[in-house]
């Protein structure tokens, strides 16, 4: 399910692909999270290792990954690491996110987005519908085309 808030065809700075309620608790820094026991939301900044969260995935409801500039792809790896480790909570990409990056971020396991700038709803739908098939396995549940052909 896509939960996007639109005004005049422009998606506001909140976009979710989840059916559960949005997590309202603000995300704390990784250092603050590791130093306390009650936080359920954490924010990973560029360069921080997502693997530090692996022992704590069962208590996290939201992990927000920072994308300070669109050229920085380290957050994609963080998303995939967390999903492959079994994290099923909300995984939010936040920052300088371009609309054409969202389908690739979805493949890495991101299911929530907080872009710095509003996104045109029609452009987003076109980007999400652009490719019918994928060529490799990823953190999402799409089946690669080679597996469809050869079982």
Output the keywords.
disordered N terminus, 8 strands, globular, alpha/beta, 25% helix, eight-stranded mixed beta sheet
Give a structural overview.
The chain has 151 residues and is α/β, with parallel strands linked by helices. It has 5 helices and 8 strands. The chain has helices at residues 30-34, 74-84, 102-107, 121-129, 145-150, and strands at 3-7, 10-16, 28-29, 41-44, 62-67, 90-95, 112-115, 119-120. Helix 2 links the parallel strand 5 and strand 6 (90-95).
Concise account of the structure shown:
The protein is an alpha/beta fold.
Look at the structure and give the mean pLDDT.
88
Count up the helices: 5
How helix-rich are the residues, as a percent range? 10-25%
* Helix-strand makeup class: alpha/beta
Shape verdict: globular
First and last CA, distance: 28 Å
Mind describing the biggest β-sheet? 8 strands, mixed
**Radius of gyration in whole Å, from Cα?**
16 Å
Fold blueprint:
Blueprint: E1 3-7, E2 10-16, E3 28-29, H1 30-34, E4 41-44, E5 62-67, H2 74-84, E6 90-95, H3 102-107, E7 112-115, E8 119-120, H4 121-129, H5 145-150
Parallel strand pairs: 3-4, 4-5, 5-6, 6-7
Antiparallel strand pairs: 1-2, 2-7, 2-8
């Amino acid at each position: 399910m896509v939960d996007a808030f639109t005004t005049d065809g422009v998606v506001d700075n909140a976009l979710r692909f989840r059916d559960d309620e949005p997590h309202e608790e603000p995300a704390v820094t990784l250092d603050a999270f590791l130093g306390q026991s009650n936080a359920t939301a954490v924010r990973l900044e560029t360069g921080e290792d997502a693997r530090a969260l692996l022992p704590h995935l069962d208590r996290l409801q939201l992990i927000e990954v920072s994308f300070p500039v669109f050229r920085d792809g380290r957050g994609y790896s963080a998303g995939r690491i967390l999903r492959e480790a079994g994290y099923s909570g909300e995984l939010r990409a936040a920052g300088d996110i371009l609309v054409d990056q969202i389908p690739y971020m979805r493949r890495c396991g991101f299911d929530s987005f907080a872009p710095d700038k509003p996104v045109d709803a029609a452009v987003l739908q076109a980007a999400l519908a652009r490719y019918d098939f994928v060529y490799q396995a990823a953190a999402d549940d799409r089946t690669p085309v080679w597996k469809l052909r050869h079982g």
